[in-house]
Specification:
- By secondary structure, the protein is mainly β.
- Helix content is 8%, strand content 53%.
- The chain contains 3 helices and 15 strands.
- The strands form 2 sheets. Strands 3-4-5-6-7-8-9-10-12-13-14-15 form a 12-stranded antiparallel barrel.
- A hairpin with a 4-residue loop joins strand 1 and strand 2 (13-16).
């Protein structure tokens, strides 16, 4: 089963936590709300609805903003291929910084992904590689994480640590400043190289009834390297909070 809710703002991935699905029924629907601050200077914080769709028949899955098919699947391991909507974007008018208002808009895109998951008695490992297929950012993104679910009655806690790697095309698109933009905005030229982003999350799910459950959590990313050094950025530690309710069929 794929992931169920975790917000990764640096990649602006909204996917629902990890391993909640390991304790849930095969199909669930829900809705929630998320809040995240932004790494960009004087940029409005995001408060957004989070639709939740979790369907998995062992061959095909839908997991919120991603969908795909398994090419290998056992009780504790899986390899899948699919697509995921990458929500990263920059809208100049959403910043109150007059220099950032003069920069170009940066768009969200669609990633093609291959992912590996391993569930063990001492935790769950996940890794994936994704590539932009809409020719917006030419991103290549690599992620690896580890989750250790802790169950106490109807409560499940999901502490997770992980790291993302983004190539220079991704960082340049979302954090770089071209010579043309520099001349227009008076911000310094910035050519962003690849970088790592470590993160930590604490997710939780509480079973209310046989069908209804609530979920929530907090997720923190830490920008490093040229992403953190961008003249567009003044917040390298990005916090996201989310909560919602789901119905398990």
């Amino acid at each position: 089963m794929k992931k169920t809710l975790c917000i990764t703002p640096i990649l602006s991935v909204i996917t629902l936590g990890y391993a909640l699905s390991a304790a849930a029924d095969p199909t669930s629907l829900g809705v929630g709300v998320g809040w995240t601050d932004s790494p960009y200077k004087k940029y409005s914080s995001n408060l957004y609805p989070i639709p939740h769709i979790d369907y998995d028949n062992g061959s095909f899955f839908i997991d919120d903003l991603s969908a795909g098919a398994y090419i290998y699947h056992t009780d504790n391991q899986s390899i899948s291929i699919g697509g995921r909507y990458l929500t990263n974007e920059f809208k100049p008018h959403d910043s109150s910084n007059h220099k950032l208002k003069k920069l170009d808009k940066r768009y969200s895109t669609l990633l093609a992904e291959i992912e590996y998951n391993l569930n063990t008695s001492w935790g769950s490992f996940s890794s994936n590689v994704g590539a932009d297929v809409l020719d917006e950012s030419n991103s290549i993104l690599v992620n690896a994480d580890y989750t250790l679910p802790v169950a106490e009655g109807d409560l499940i806690l999901l502490p997770t640590i992980g790291i993302n790697w983004a190539n220079s095309n991704h960082n340049n698109y979302y954090y770089g400043i071209s010579h043309k933009e520099s001349n227009r905005s008076k911000l310094r030229y910035h050519n962003a190289d690849n970088s790592f982003t470590p993160y930590a999350e604490l997710g939780a799910q509480y079973k209310l009834t046989n069908h209804f459950a609530t979920y929530g959590g907090i997720h923190i990313d830490k920008l490093t390297g040229d992403a953190a050094d961008s003249p567009m950025v003044d917040n390298s530690a990005i916090t996201s909070i989310y909560m919602g309710v789901s119905y398990n069929f």
